[in-house]
Predict the 3D structure of the following.
Amino acid sequence: MDWSALSVSLRLAIFTCLFLLPIGIWVGRRLATAQFRGKGLCEALVALPLVLPPTVLGFYLLQSFGREAPVGQLWMSLTGGGLTFTFSGILLASLVANLPFAIQPIQRAFENVPHNLREAAWCSGLSPWQTLLLIELPLVWPGILSATALTFAHTLGEFGVILMVGGAIDGETRTLAIAIYDRVQAFDEQGAAQMAALLLVVSFTTLGVVYGLAGRRRWARG
Amino acid sequence: MVKLTVEAQQAGPIPLNAEFSCLPGELLALVGPSGSGKTTLLRAIAGLYRPQHGRIECAGDTWLDTQRQQSLSPQRRRVGMVFQDYALFPHLTALANVQLPLRHLPTPLRRPKAEQWLETVRLKGLENRYPSELSGGQRQRVALARALARDPQVLLLDEPFSAVDQVTRRRLQRELARLRQQISIPIVLVTHDLEEAAALADQICVLHNGNSLQQAPPETLFRTPASPNVARLLDRNNVFDGQVVEVDGTRRLQWGRYALDVASGLEGLNVGERVAWYLPPSDIVLHRRDRPSQGERENPVAASVDEIIVLGGMTSVALRVPHGDMLRFDIATHAVRRNQLTPGVAVNVSLLAGGIHLMPGHGVDTAPDEKRNTP
């Protein structure tokens, strides 16, 4: 069992969820409720990582993370370090690759909140912020849970993008999925099997817990 | 000035040219067909819709004045709004729904106040139910309690009885009438149900394509609609075309071969002028065939029965007069039997002079239903 790979995977998944959730809520709500020019384009961009081969996405990210590329330069000026083959680099790549998993379930959930509930809240004297906190978020909670579960599970299993951007540096960028590949390459089938089973259990448990929680709402039973 | 006054004008996308007012304690019904702008106007009062031009004042405060670029947000208007499908918060219990608008009160006071409101709408004991666990009528009452909990300066009801069955509707209407005695703020009710408007409202405002055509108490409106169009929107039949004539030095209304006596309204018109007129069905008196009826000598008209439609205890009767126009009225079904009214039978009726309402300046053409009856 490669414990350091497991640690990298878990850290990556937790940070990805933490950073993506506020973004998912903000963007998902905007896409669900606002009408603006270029909305279709935004939705297409959000969905792009779903259909793009991970190696293609990874290639472009690698290009833009380089020391001569704008993102790499910006990161360098902010932190003094590089993005390629670092944990920060794979985290940034993971944020991009998981955009659709974080945004789409939340967007669908916001779309299902009837607009007149917001209006009823305003007529009850609630400010837009109070409306978001007291009315909308409790109603879109299942969507947020789904987004978290999908993002978490998908990050644990992400392979192509991470390999392209991060390589397989032990304790820094080698995730569990990559470690499994390495073990198979080294004919260590038992090691690979252990880690694969662990990944399966963790993913299944995460999804199970989340969907179980989402179903336990008395008010939603009609 | 504590009343509510509303003025709204715009060319599109929803055309509006409306003006109405409502006194405290008064119930104003906005009636009109779908797309007449009723709900839009209600939303404009609540601050959920902003007309291009307009002015809304309530209880002395200006809520909207487009000339001065002034528009208060819904949060600052203190309106109690009951939405058409109630818009209850599904994740909150009945009590929590009613508590939400009470956030201006200190926390310990909110719960007892919300319980009090639920008791007022007769929902005591159902405080902990979620909306999905309540019947349609109970949901409507929670919505009403929530609207009133805001301590509003105006109560707005958007088709509040349309989503419940007939029996519940009657009961809720009675309860609204009862509740009105406890609150003294303007109430604006949007409805397409004329019977409901007539039963509940002190004032009715008739809307068509965003235009407010007439505002008056129901009995005034139903007896003296301002135009054939208003009469048609109020589902009034008996709108006809006549001509002012002079017979033996007296002004009369020529209708087919009859020169009708009219109690008032002819003085201001010129002889020869064409004028649309309306007669409430209650002012058509059917002559009994066995003995003389009261008022029999007033504008007697001979006609033949064209259509008899029995609707339970009441029967809708259509009579065709010799020149083709159709008189419609309802009488008790037993009276139809007693008079042996069947299609084709010749009958005599009196058109009471006091009921004839003239609508000068309007052609009868705006009432297509009546036109169709003319051969």
